[in-house]
Prior knowledge:
Layout: E1 6-8, H1 11-17, E2 27-34, H2 40-53, E3 59-63, E4 68-72, E5 80-81, E6 99-104, E7 107-113, H3 119-137, H4 151-154, H5 158-162, E8 189-196, H6 197-206, H7 211-224, E9 236-243, H8 245-248, E10 257-264, H9 273-287, H10 290-302, H11 307-310, H12 314-329, E11 334-341, E12 352-359, E13 364-371, E14 374-381, H13 387-398, E15 403-407, H14 413-419
Helix pairs in contact: 2-3, 7-9, 7-13
Amino acid sequence: MDKTTWYRLDNVGKFYASQAGSPTQTIFRYSATMTDAVNPEDLQHALNRALVVYPNFNVRLRSGFFWHYLEQSHDTPLVSLEDIPICHSLHVNEKSVLFRVSYYKKRINLEISHIISDGRGTLNFFKALIIAYIQCRYKYRNSEIAPHVTNKQKIENSFDIHYEKKLAGSTKKPRVYHLKGEKNKLSPTYLEYHTSASQVLTLARTFQVSLTSFFIAAVVCAIRDEMTIRERNKTIRLDIPVDLRQHFKSSTTKNFFGLTYVEYKPGSYDESLEIVAKHIQEQLKIGTSPENLKRRMNQMIALEKNPFLRFAPAFLKDQVLKIAGRITAGDVTASVSSLGIIDFPEYTLNHIEDINVTTSPEGINFTACTFKDDLSLGMSTSFTNLSVTRNLCKLFNDLGIKGRVNISKEDDDEMQRVRN
Length: 420
């Protein structure tokens, strides 16, 4: 095979490739609400342009004897009117590309498999798509849709470059609290909560914490409200993905993130949101230090580097990685991610109303991003009981921070209770 037509999976991509074919495979969804109804012809033209800049996203998953790999697709996928569930399976068979672009009324959606990239890497492709669409739709003459990065830099496996076996250290885990209740993994619920970023930031500053620490603390308090008296001696443990590109000067669009964790044991007394936020901020400060990030990064990929696993056939690797994934999922209560401020060129801002990011959930996930003065919280859960998301919305409302909720299942009574 011509080496220019295929790509090696990065170390984390190999883990997510073990989910291939599963209806619960991990998928990112980026959405932009535009000011006007989406023109599908212009959106198709924009996708064509974005794939010229980022061809490594237009790939299919293939299987070798020892490892899976990505093969370049020479056909450009067609944009489509959204008519399937959010984060629906992407890898269905070997002909499936690992992303889709859809639209509905004023909204543009990009969904991408975690096999290809992580949240920050996907953001680069999403921004290029939206910028190209705005240029085409509104006849701007600008030609640039993404910063110049060489193809070699885009497909770099930064995990391999920065891996140091001797620095791979384990993390002591407390007795973790797990949410209870019925799950429907084949039909998760997706919610968006939009509110004023400046209002939340002002309140966070009065607490002397970052907006990210404030958001994570709010999630902790929403989960705490679900704990019984007997459960309050357990620890709420959240995993927080951290972009490693800024720490290791990487421009890769492949997966390159580390995990840090925050832990909180409620005990018998409800501390205030302010106190919880300060606990979180202190843990984040320690957990995101370069030495801790590197230790956990090396720990994340140590299994994939195991010499016995490396020479095992692909089907056996998949089974081992699936088991490791289930064990890892059991070590946390929920996942929380913050992409921070998402910026676009000045001339595009009047054409975009808001941005939202969410992911397919194992249990319950929260994702935050800010665009202009809109703080968007993407919440996804496989639990049929939506009490945690309802608690989070109520917490903001009780603080005097008004917001609006978009829900994926409008006819469900439980959804209406969240909204109200």
